Amino acid sequence: MRYENVCSLLRTNEYLAKVVAMRWGHLISKNSIEALMMSSLKVFILLVIPVVCCAQCIMKFSDTSLTMAVDEKRDIELIIMNCTRKQNSTFKIHIQHKNNLMVFPDFIESNESIVSTRVKIEVTALDPGETSLYTESPISNFSSHKPAFAKIDIYRNQIIEILSIIIGWTYFFTWTVSFYPQVYENHKRKSVVGLNLDYVVVNITGYATYALFNLGLYYIPAIREQYAERYPFSIMSVLPNDIFFGLHGLVLTLYIGLQCLCYERGDQTISWFGKAFHYAAALVLIIAASLCFSSYILWLDFLYICSYIKLAVTFCKYTPQAVMNYKRQSTEGWSIEAVLLDIVGGICSIVQIFLNIYNYNESWAWLLENPTKLWLGYDVITEFVLTAACMEVLQIRRIWAVSTSPSNTCSCYV
Prior knowledge:
Helices cover 61% and strands 14% of the residues. The chain has 14 helices and 10 strands.
């Protein structure tokens, strides 16, 4: 808001006070009119001045997340809006890692008369890696300045990039489909004997917290603002397929839980492990929610705590099932198709991680920055090892039983 507009508002305020004095002057004392004018001025100071002072110059790139090949060139636009300057200004475009990227032009001159504009920027990828663009301007020329930011990933080989995308969709598909064999197995047998109830209830909790994390980050504006304030130079990592996968997993695990209530389950109950895990998870969530309501932590932190609970579920949910299989010396009731699909998904996930490390020239420390995805793949492979060990024990016992049976001994001499 310009100075002329402020003066106009002041004159309007004075005019209204005079009208009140002329119309109702015989009913209102002089002191009351002065008090009315002072109150009106206070309202003006409290409501109008902050708007004038907090007018924000907004800059943003037309694309905030780019994936490019080495030596590829691409044009993006820098959009400048609502910039009221006191004098001519220069916007500088900075590159986080200059050996990865080159931009032209790397600065933009703008005169005082231009309030909003769009400028084309040529971006050239040099070396594989991850980098970012962000703007900087003379803050003294602006009442407030919101910089532009764009994240750019540069890969070295197109074939490896396509292969990585295919593998990514493969493990997404296999993990999505892996719920259905167990549902069909329970329905066909009209029984859940052999399916560990701890595994079922812990899995429900895991997908409930995972779905809550994705929905909160994607749909709640207040939490998205908290994320933007904490990580100003970062792109929201939650995508629609993450939301679909979380909700789909929650619905299917809830349906399996309903099957456990309706079908024959023998003497199976939820053990101390399942109860203790849920008591601990509930306590953590209650404390976190209380801290949020007391403004000690943000709701963004609450969602991160939900994601950590999901990670804990992924770490331990297969253990009760593996122990139960070993004790029963049987895998009947536990769908082997679901296990195989989980294993394929986990292997694909880990393969994609290592392909991306090579193709984007990432250091091995990148694994420590992405523990959740790595642990998902590792835990599924752990499930494979436990299942294979259990099946191997069963096979050895069957061979031993057959070899030592009287009927088998007699038949050898026939």
